[in-house]
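Practice problem: predict the structure.
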Amino acid sequence: MPTNKGSWKIFRLAGIDVYVHWSWFLAFWYFTSRPHQYTNYGWNALEILSLFLIVLTHEFGHQLACRQVGGKTHDIVLWPLGGVAYVTPPQRPGAQLWSIAAGPLVNVLLIPVLSLFFWAGVHFQWQESYPNLEELIRQVWTVNIVLLVFNLLPVYPLDGGQILRSLLWFVFGRANSLLAASVIGFLGVAGLIGLAIYQGSLWLGILSVFILMNCWAGLKQAGALARLAKLPRRAGFACPSCKTAPPLGNLWRCGHCGQPSDTFLEATACPQCGTPFVAAQCLDCGESHPLSAWRFPED
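Answer:
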């Protein structure tokens, strides 16, 4: 679920709030204070800000693509390991694929733009007249390529791993595709941890642990989706969004008392505390609709 806990809102664009996590400032101080190839630390700070501008445009790519396929967009949170675009695309493989692929596509589109500046620096010999500017362009060009390549690694939950999951979804279904992507992610993260140890990179090690935690979460979610798919379904109702009938069982918790019940069996109110049921969330696609809107797919 979207969370901006521990973050500060810095601006809002196209209806999307952008937050920066407190740890970002710590990382900014750390990287700008390290030895660098510029004549002063201001250029080093500008390089870090350029890096996160690339990350921000990448995340907006996810957000706008999700809107295009009819999904919901939430916040963008910037933190030391990059950025997180909280999006809720429709539970269809094509919609998921476009929502994820649009992020790396932004980096692809940036390549010719940054390459033009890179070429200008070489052609006009900025290394002699404007060495700081030439070094900044070189570093930003390199970082964009590195981010693109790293993000496309087929390691869940990186974009490459999620793209792989979306492609597998077409063939193997939602639960099995997530299971396969998570397992492949474990293999990939093992390689990243080995690389972090070999290079003595604390930063890569932290990133690897983060990826490992998300692979584990993906594996558990795949198991939950597989169990959900096996449940019998209730006739007479269907989600307005995905047209899927709700499963049988006490799977919905009352918003007042927290007790589980079968919303569609009780139909009107919580059997424990009597709180009226106004809406029900689809356990398959995650969308919430008024109970009156649930109907047969063919209606």
